[in-house]
Automatic annotation (TrEMBL):
It catalyses: holo-[ACP] + malonyl-CoA = malonyl-[ACP] + CoA. This is [acyl-carrier-protein] S-malonyltransferase. GO terms for molecular function: [acyl-carrier-protein] S-malonyltransferase activity. It is an enzyme of class 2 (transferase). Keywords: Acyltransferase, Transferase. Residues 5-301 form the Malonyl-CoA:ACP transacylase (MAT) domain. One of its GO terms (biological process) is fatty acid biosynthetic process.
Length: 309
């Protein structure tokens, strides 16, 4: 079974879209999505610096736009009959929802545009951020985060937890980490998936009522609990609530394994989720579609999976 996964915030790097824009189909799709987002995603993906694309209001539309444009190039006919399951990490859930047919690309970009703006506004109320905690005993990691008043915002599996809270709390964690663990500050501008994002949830809930949604055309997993969501209305409801709820990517990977996923392809800006899959989904063949050079390998895997079906 083939899984297509979509990365979240922090996966973007300066200039990552430069090679993609040499593909006419990719550039055309990205320019169209830029119009909806009200942002020059071409410039942000090529010439904007790290600080600019760290801004939540820029990063989120950039990541979703890149993923949707990459999906259009990789699978121009869509996922039906080819893809067994799809999932996205954090804001990547919007990419996955559009890929699965729940939202149109237009509405996905409207949602991510407003999500990014609302989360940026919520982040501006208090200086907050996120840090990855790599390794350590899970019980001790949980205890240390609690001691510092931090939230385990992302349970990524494979020995990785992402802590979120105020910058002071994160500084205290860096100075007093769990035993045998490394703490790495992430290039994000807020404590996402925590109570700090509550103001954004209300704004997005009102916006989402106006979307025309469809039920997923392919199995779509939720960050809430790793389960498959079968109705479009429930998908959108979860997308809104997930802004202030922890991301359980560990459970998404567990479900993919249980469902028999043998091949996993990560859409651009790729790398993070493939890295987690290599540790958390042993035996699964993976490809990170970082540049157009990776399309040949990804398309070969898609062909191989189609022949098995």
């Amino acid at each position: 079974m083939l899984a297509i996964v979509c990365p979240g915030q922090g996966s973007q790097t300066p200039g990552f879209l430069a090679p993609w824009l040499e593909l006419a189909a990719f550039r055309e799709r990205l320019e169209s999505l830029s119009d909806v987002a009200g942002l020059d995603l071409v410039a942000h993906g090529t010439t904007s610096d790290a600080e600019t694309i760290k801004d939540t209001a820029v990063a989120q539309p950039l990541i979703v736009g890149a993923g949707l444009a990459a999906a259009a190039v990789l699978l121009p006919s869509g996922p039906a009959g080819t893809v067994g399951v799809t999932a996205g990490h954090s804001v990547g859930e919007i990419t996955a929802a559009a890929f699965a047919g729940v939202l149109s690309d237009h509405d996905a970009m409207v949602l991510v545009r407003e999500r990014g703006a609302a989360m940026a506004a919520a982040s501006a109320r208090t200086p907050t951020g996120m840090s990855a905690v790599l390794g350590g005993d899970p019980a001790e990691v949980a205890a240390v985060l609690e001691r510092h008043g931090l939230t385990a915002a992302n349970a990524n599996g494979a020995g990785q937890t992402v802590a979120a809270g105020t910058l002071d709390q994160l500084a205290a964690l860096a100075a007093d980490p769990p035993a045998k663990a490394r703490v790495i500050a992430l290039p994000v501008a807020g404590a996402f998936h925590t109570h700090h994002m509550a103001p954004a949830v209300e704004a997005l809930g009102q916006l989402a009522q106006g979307f025309d949604v469809s039920d997923p055309g392919v199995t779509l997993l939720s960050n809430r609990d790793g389960s498959a969501v079968t109705t479009g209305a429930e998908v959108v409801s979860r997308l809104v609530q997930q802004v202030s709820n922890p991301v359980r990517w560990d459970l998404c990977m567990r479900t993919m394994v249980e469902q028999g996923v043998t091949t996993l392809i990560e859409l651009a800006p790729a790398g993070t989720l493939v890295g987690l899959a290599k540790r958390g989904m042993p035996g699964v063949t993976t490809v990170a579609v970082k540049t157009p050079d990776d399309l040949v390998a990804a398309q070969q895997l898609i062909s191989d999976e189609a022949q098995k079906a």
